[in-house]
Amino acid sequence: MESSPGPLPAAELTERLRARFGQDLLESSDALDQAVVRIAPDRYLDLIRTLRDDGDFACDFLDFVSAVDRGDDGFDVVVQLWSTTRRHQVRVMVAAGKDEPRLPSIADLYPGANWHERETWELFGIDFEGHPQLVKLLLPEQFEGFPLRKDFALTTRLAKPWPGEETTGEGPE
Amino acid sequence: MGLIERTPLASIQPVKFLLNWGRKYSLWVMNFGLACCAIELIATSTSKHDFIRLGVIPVAHGPRQADLLVVAGTVTDKMAPALKRVYDQIPDPKYTISFGSCSNCGGPYWDSYSVTKGVDQIIPVDVYVPGCPPRPEALLHGIIKLQEKIAHEDIREKWSGKLTGAPARS
After folding, report:
1. Residue A128 lies in a domain
2. What is the C-alpha R_g of chain B?
3. Contact residues, chain A, for B122 at CB < 8 Å
4. Host domain of residue A34
C-alpha cells in the first residue's frame, strides 16, 4: 500500500489556505484540532474546489452540508470535508445571507452533497443555485415553512410554552 | 352480514364467554415498529419474556392476517397515512396497543414539527402503554389489560366494525 503523507495539523491547513486566499479567508480557528475556516461567499466554490483538487489538502470525501441560523446575522452554511488519504478534515463556514439566503451548489463537485443540500434547503430555506433537483427529501410534500429556522412557529409551543429554561442563544458563541 | 351478527347465540352468556376466551388467547400481532420501542416489542416476543404464553402470536406476515396492531415508536406526520392504511387493512375485530410515549402523545417530541402527537389522532387505540421505552413487562401488562377488555366485549358489536370505524361491509 502506498504510504500517504499523513494529516496536516489544523494550524498548517489554515496557513496554507491563507496563503492561497488571503483576505477572503475571513476567520480561522481550530476546534479539536480540525481547521475551521470562514470564507467570503464569492470565493466559496474556489475554496471547495481547491480543498478537493489540491494535493496539499486532498479532501476527497464530503462529510456533510448543514446550516446555522444566526438570527440577525443571517444563515451560515457549514461544509465538512475529510481526506481519506491524508486523514485530516476541514470545516468550511460561509455566509448565505439573511432574507433570501442563497449559495452556489457543490453537488457537481461532490455528488454526496446532493441530498445534504436538498435537506438544508427544505429545513432552512437556503437556495442552492445550480442544484440538479432541489425538491423535498424528508418533509411531507404538503409541508409549509422551514422548520429549522429560529422564527419557525412550533404550534405546540404556542399552545404550551417550553416548561424549562430557554437556553437558545444565551450561551457563548 | 356475517353469522355472528345474525345469530342470537353470541349473546348467550356461556357462548359469549367461550368465544371471547378463544379470541383473547389468539392474537396475531402486527408489529408496526418505528423506533427503539420496536426493540422492546421484539424482546417481548423472544424466549425470556415470551408473549406467546399469553396467546400473542408473532408476527403476522401482513396486516390482513393480524388481529392486534402494536404501534411501537415515533409516528411522524409523513408516516401517518401509511399507518392508517395498515390499520384499515386489518380485518375486524381488531385491536390497537399504543406502545411508548411517542405513539401515546409525542413523548419527548411533543413540540416537534414533524411528529404526530399521539397515534389516537389517526386510529382508535385500545390500550396505552406508557414508558420511554416501556419494558417488556409493561407490554405484557398491556396485553393482559387488552385481554380483560376482550373478555367483557359484546362481540356482535365488535364484529360489526362500528366501534373501529371500519369501512362498511356489503
Report:
1. yes
2. 16
3. none
4. 10-159
A168 domain-assigned:
no
Q: Does the beta carbon of B117 lie under 8 angstroms from any beta carbon of chain A?
A: yes
Given a cut of 50, whether residue B167 has pLDDT beyond it is no
Please judge whether B111 and A156 are an interchain contact, meaning their C-beta atoms are less than 8 angstroms apart: yes
CB B69 within 8 Å of CB B32: yes
User: Would you say B79 and B34 are in contact if contact means Cβ atoms under 8 Å apart?
Assistant: yes
Please report whether residue A5 resides in a domain: no
Q: Tally the domains of chain A.
A: 1
Distance between CA atoms of residues A128 and A137, nearest Å: 14
Residue A66 lies in a domain: yes
Closest-CA residue in chain B for A149? Answer: B113
Residues A110-158: pLDDT tens digits?
999 999 999 999 999 999 999 999 999 999 888 888 999 988 888 877 8
A25 — phi, psi (to 5°)? -85, 95
For residue A119, give the DSSP letter: H
Q: Which run of H or of E encompasses A121?
A: helix A113-124
Say yes or no to pLDDT of B104 above 50: yes
Backbone angles phi, psi at B3, to 5 degrees: -60, -40
A37: CATH: 3.30.460.80
CB contact under 8 A, A147 and B114: yes
> Hey, is the C-beta of A161 within 8 angstroms of any chain B C-beta?
no
